[in-house]
Known about the structure:
This protein has 155 residues and is of the alpha+beta class. 40% of the residues lie in helices and 19% in strands.
Amino acid sequence: xxxxxxxxxxxxxxxxxxxxxxxxxxxxxxxxxxxxxxxxxxxxxxxxxxxxxxxxxxxxxxxxxxxxxxxxxxxxxxxxxxxxxxxxxxxxxxxxxxxxxxxxxxxxxxxxxxxxxxxxxxxxxxxxxxxxxxxxxxxxxxxxxxxxxxxxxxx
Length: 155
C-alpha cells in the first residue's frame, strides 16, 4: 500500500509504525496520537508520520506557548493534548458559570448564550445551535527529528 492510516492510541501507533517499517513498508503513515509515547515507542520509524491534532508543544501560538511554559513550571513535565483539552474545558465551564450562574440551568444558559469563550487551543470559541463548537480546525503535524512539528497546513 501507499499509506497506512491508524486511528488509535499513541503507543499502539508507535508500535504499529515500528513494525511496518521493520517489514520494509516505505509508504506514508497517518495517524496515532501526538503523544510522547508515540515517538518513544515508534523511535526513528515514527519520522515522517503525519496526523491531525489541535495541540502541539512546538505550536508557535503565543497562548499555547504560555500554557506549555506554565504547565511545565508547575508539573515539571511537558503537557499533552489531553492536558490542554482538560484545561480549556474547565475554563469554558468556569466562563459559562460567570455568564449564566452556578447551577445546571446557569451553565446551560452560559454555554448557549452565543457569546465566545477564551480558550488556549481554539482562541475565541463559540457553540452552534446543536451545541457543537464552531469553526474548529485541526492542525497538521509531522514527526520531524523526533518532535511533532506544526506543518502550517490546516486539516
